[in-house]
Amino acid sequence: MTGFVLRRLALALAVGIAVSMLSFALVRLTGDVATAIAGEGARDEDIQLVRQTYGLDRPILVQYLAWLGELLRGELGTSYFFKSPVSDLVLSKLPVTLILGLSSLLFALVIAVPLGVLAALRPDSAVDRLALGIAVTGQAMPNFFLALLLIMLFSITLRWLPVSGSGTWQHYVMPTVALGYYVAPAFMRLIRAGMIETLQSDFIRTARAKGLSRSRVILRHGLRNALTPVVALAVVQLGYLLGGSVVIETVFALDGLGYLAYQSITHKDLPVMQVVVLMLSVIYVLLTLFADVLNAYLDPRLRAAM
Amino acid sequence: MSALASSDGGAEPLPVLTPGSPGRPTSGARWWRHKSLVLGGGVLAVIVLLALFAPLLAPHDPYVQNLARRTIPPVWYDKGSWAHPLGTDALGRDYLSRTIYGARISLLIGVSVAVLSGLIGTVLGVAAGYFGGRVDLLVTFLITVRLALPVILVALAAVAVVGGSLPLVILVLGLLKWDRFVVVMRSATQSVRSLDYVQAARASGASTARIIWREVLPNVLPFLIVTATLEAASAILLEAALSFLGLGIQPPLPSWGLMISEAKPYMFFSFWLIAIPGACLATLILSINLLGDGLRDAISPDRRAAT
Question: What is the pLDDT of residues A17-27, one digit of tens each?
Fold first, then answer.
């Protein structure tokens, strides 16, 4: 187990370095940053001034190493647009996005687990059809379109929920649904397939033969085994939800990391943009590291495979 | 490695080549799958025909503005008229025509991104699966790095710095979305590599290039097609999201995502402006996904009951 964890840590570190290079290169390789900051119609002297002010005239490797050094010391630079330290900005927005990500994950699981289990118990029944229908239509709906439909119904017609902002728990209801429903089908399919497989295995037959009640067999023996891969998927999906929150946060003007990313992107605010991309990537790397170690702990067969 | 088990798209379980998945296909499941193939393929064919013959079918020029005829509701409203069956947008452009032309953009995005990312993913995946060892390690590392990047954010940032346009959106998405192709092609190649006819080809002295081209590729092609189908749907959704945020396709092109974005200020009074392109997007994605699911089950029958 220790060897596995160490190997996995080394991989995570290597991926982290690669990701930092990419998020640095992202904004440099795609165009002339100084011209972009100076804006359209800027004079050459202005562009030159921008280059010197932000150190954009140094060799790219020097710029990267300087940037990395500052990152490691916790100096994330100053936002061009908000004129405040990037670290303050990012840290103040992170909780909103974490709450949204976790509540979306919870929402997806609350839908997916019961439906997945019921569908597995009676394949081809009406419940199975319904679950499949929800999964298939759910994945076809663009999440920003669903968000607008929710606003239309709950904010404008029924006047139950606020359209935008992030002050109260009510502000999180629609974003949670709009973001969470998209990942629910993945869980549902995994739980359904896992339950069908588990319920056909020998130890379930033994448990039934022992005379245990049906519900006890299904929940204590069946679901427990089918949930093992779900734990790992949940961790990975949380990373996806955090990264994908940019669209939903922007629709609802929910003041989190995603909305900050959108604002920084539209204002060509490079320091913020880089840090948000890097931060979400690093969170994803850490989450997958955690998921793999957790998986190896839950299922010893996986340790040998790495 | 769990990082490989789920892409950022997140949703579809990967096709599994190994037989022995539990459960015999029941007749009901088989019927549903067959139905999903026919239904998905049928709806998609209609949308493709609409897109191909857009100039013949659209009643008006999708770009001509008429400020005297702004936000006319569709024909089923009291104030609607048959002159503009789906009404007009805030600039007085015929909405039916824009919607029909919008199908062209979505389909173009889906096909081009699937081809570009499929090309990258197939080269990497087949190389990793066939050669194994260090090549496999390197490719696995590349996927792990790629999966760590939040696709939509990176695409947004790239488009924002360079400026949005149709070719750029295709390029950016194509360069980002190869991960699932690699995962699928890698495992498909691994299982084909050790089969008898590949061994026989090797024993008879065929070159590596010839074995890959003549023996491996034809046999992993079905998996490539299924993956390309599902990835095309995902690319269309991403383009719609980018355009909705104003950082994808630029006006006056009639991208469905952009049309929803342009209609947002009018959603309180003219909700059809959002509902029509939104419903079109959902229908298109649904039909492609049904087709992809149906194809997947057609090529790997063992999975029919399991998913």
Answer: 998 888 888 76
Q: Which residue of A has its CA nearest to B236?
A: A142
Give the separation between CA B92 and CA B73, rounded to whole angstroms: 11
The complex scores an ipTM of 0.83
Confidence of residue A38 (pLDDT cuts 50, 70, 90): low
Average pLDDT, chain B: 83
Q: Which amino acid, residue A256?
A: G
Written as one letter, the residue type at B257 is G
Which DSSP symbol is given to B75? T
Contact between A246 and B3 using a beta-carbon 8 Å cutoff: no
CA distances B220 to A146, B18, B182, B216, Å, are: 36, 14, 12, 6
**Cβ contacts of A140 on chain B, cutoff 8 Å:** 233, 282-283, 285-286, 289
Spans of all domains in chain B:
34-306
Q: What are the pLDDT digits (tens) for B42-64?
A: 999 999 999 999 888 888 888 88
Q: Any chain B CB within 8 A of the CB of A194?
A: no
User: Do A305 and A299 contact (CB within 8 A), yes or no?
Assistant: no
Map residue A161 onto helix, strand or coil.
Answer: coil
Domain ranges of chain A: 87-290
pLDDT given at position B82: 81
Does A116 reach chain B within 8 Å, measured CB to CB? no
Which CA distances in Å does B160 have to A230, A236, B150, B151, B251? 36, 27, 15, 14, 15
In the 8-state DSSP scheme, what is residue B250? P
Q: Are residues A193 and B306, on separate chains, in Cβ contact within 8 Å? A: yes
The sign one gets for the Cα dihedral B57, B246, A134, A149 is negative
Q: Which CATH architecture has domain A87-290?
A: Orthogonal Bundle (1.10)
Residues 72 to 91 of A: which have CB under 8 A from any B CB?
Answer: none
- Considering CB atoms only, which of B150, B244, B307 is closest to A281? B150
Q: How far away is chain B from the Cα of A298, in angstroms, using its nearest Cα? A: 13
Q: Which fold has domain B34-306?
A: MetI-like fold (1.10.3720)
CA distance B102 to B108: 10
Segment B176-193 shows an average pLDDT of 91
Higher pLDDT, B281 or B61: B281
Q: Is B137 on the interface with A (CB under 8 A)?
A: no
Nearest to A141 among B26, B271, B282 (CB): B282
- Cβ neighbours of B23 in A, within 8 Å: 123, 196, 200
Q: Does A29 lie at the interface with B, CB-CB under 8 angstroms? A: no
User: Count of A–B CB contacts within 8 Å?
Assistant: 188
In the predicted model, what is the mean pLDDT of residues B152-171? 85
End-to-end alpha carbon distance in chain A: 11
- pLDDT band at B191; cut points 50, 70, 90: confident
User: Rounded to an integer, what distance in angstroms lies between the CA atom of residue B166 and that of residue A238?
Assistant: 31
How far, in Å, are A86, A133, B192 from residue B129 at the CA level? Answer: 43, 35, 9
A47 interfaces chain B, CB cutoff of 8 Å: no
